[in-house]
Design goal:
Blueprint (H helix, E strand, L loop, with lengths): L5 E6 L4 E8 L2 E9 L11 H23 L8 E7 L3 H18 L3 E5 H7 L15 E6 L4 E6 L5 E6 L5 H11 L7 H8 L22 H17 L3 H4 L1 H27 L3 E5 L6 H13 L3 E3 L11 H12 L29
Parallel strand pairs: 1-4, 4-5, 6-9, 9-10
Antiparallel strand pairs: 1-2, 2-3, 6-7, 7-8
Helix pairs in contact: 1-2, 3-10, 4-6, 4-8, 5-8, 8-9
Bound molecules: 5'-O-[(R)-(carboxyoxy)(hydroxy)phosphoryl]adenosine (KG4) and zinc ion.
Length: 351
Amino acid sequence: MNRIFKVLAIESSCDDTGAAVLKGRSVCSNVVSSQTVHGEFGGVVPELASRAHVQNIVAVVDLALKQAKIRPAEIDAVAFTRGPGLLGSLLVGASFARSFASALGKPSFGIHHIKAHVLAHHIEGVHVQPPEFPYLALVVSGGHTQLLKVHDFELFEILGQTLDDAAGEAFDKTAKILGLPYPGGPLLDRLAEEGNPEAFRFAKTRTDGLNFSFSGFKTSVLYTLRPLIEKDPAFVQNHLADLCASIRKNICDSLVERTLEASAMTGLKTVALSGGVAANRLLRKELAAALEEHGARLLVPPLAYCTDNAAMIGIAAVLRLESGKTERTFADSLIKPRIPIDEPESSAQAQ
Ligand code: KG4
Ligand code: ZN
């Protein structure tokens, strides 16, 4: 039987300050404090994000420990996000985690943020049966869009990825064109429910292989609307639901098409969805239906484990510890804004 590792995990890669406590693969607490300071700027302001992390982190960690009813001395290890993410934000979480671990005389482990998004599927209770390796993963968030073959908990192969904007970014930027407040993705999704997805046709960029591209589509939304708004300043307001539905369909169609192709190419029949865009109603519905039609299945974790959270950082650390990799490596001491998901952790010092 596996030893039950008790891990305190910290996530601070972007604009959410998160802390979680795991006992083995089960989550005892998962606290997230989302920063609201960025709304008026229409996007995340890195300097404000790192300052807000500094303000929030002590309270968030304290609450996570209290909710888990665990004393710091009982913790076996502290895990933190080592990247990808905003450098200043990463630094706050990593510095706090290392200091906390050092004060306790326990090791601290740096975790790859995107791997953690995927590994959230292995948290106890998320699925009756967690996905068996190898499987496919589609990670769609505000910063990332990748189709991955997950060989095991640390070996990830990129099958396709966005060549420009991430899917969440495509939602947020087109929502901004429509005048919706940041982040526009969730609101656009809600408004789209009442609209006709065939009302507007926007450009769809064909890419090589299993890659994605959304920047041409975004420009197409802008250029389609510009003359219409010049003629009628209330055009967007009067067609808001149809515009949202058409935009949503365009983005979702690309994601569904490529995922189906990846499943056909690899013969893998399980697709694990992760990232904030996994909340999108149409994506969940269409992707599940399309995969089922082809004898494959879609796994979606609860939303709290899709958006940025510390429980996913914790499970990545627990899986690593369970595999016997209990020693700190050079990669654990590196924080980087960009880390290719297929970069072997053992080659981190070559960077
Ligand atoms: O994973 P996440 O919380 O943070 C990172 O970007 O890492 O994802 C946030 C992204 C934002 O772009 C947000 O607009 C998008 O996920 N999002 C949605 C929906 N909910 C969140 N996009 C489309 N439909 C949604 N329902
Ligand atoms: Zn994320």
